[in-house]
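DM from R.C. (forwarded with permission)

"hey, sorry to bug you on a friday — could you get me a structure for this? deadline for the figure draft is monday and I only need the backbone to look sensible"
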Amino acid sequence: MVRRFDALKLVGEWSKKYANLPDRYIRRAMRQIYWESPRGKPNYLPVTVERKQFRFSIYRPWTNEFHRDNAPGRKSKFIHVEPIKDWSFFRGDRVEILMGKDKGKQGIVKEIYQERNWVIVDGLNTKLQRVMKDKNFPGLCMLVEQPLLVTTQVQLVDPSDMRGTSIEWRYLEDGQRVRISTRTGRLIPIPVSSEETKDYKLPRMYVEQPKDTKKEDILKITFTPKLKTFEMDIMDEIGIKEDRVPKKYYWY
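My reply, with the result:
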């Protein structure tokens, strides 16, 4: 079973992959420190206790919803997660739902939460939620997609016959690792949209911008080191010659 620190590691790796966020920012966004007094000690001797157990859901660690679910003093039940060695689902994959009210329907994977083995399929497995409700307004009912477990609730679709299938990872002659359908033996390509991030659409579309300092300026020699003091260097630049005779001194 995946322990807490393994889940935190997955949060950092998967979040950075799709959002270009550094791990130090994710750790800083999740950090919660409590000031408590140890048992049997006076109240004026505080100790720092950092929270290590978090409740992971569809909200990322840097969102307000994540902080609401993990508010100070709020504890959650430990959730056992089955680790998946070879993750086979990517954003943009076509999958088929295996259970629930949308059983047999196919859709596109919109979001991935690898720390919980979840995927969200666009427009499927929805639930009515009421939002913007207050005293003077009854609120609006919206259909919100709910997560699906990749181990038992969804299955990849073979593009050759558009039917659900299990897959296995294999290697091509050039060493490329690909997904192969176990039923038809056809290749299931990884969608290009899985490489999209928030900073730029695709890595291959990123255009390198010109730097402030050119290569010629870096290689240009602007300083020649000399065995002179700063004052001696200034005197040479101005043209002042030292005509004073220094006093004799001895080293012992």
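R.C.: lifesaver. The radius of gyration is 31 Å.
me: no worries. The helical segments are 4-19, 23-30, 64-69, 215-219, 230-238.
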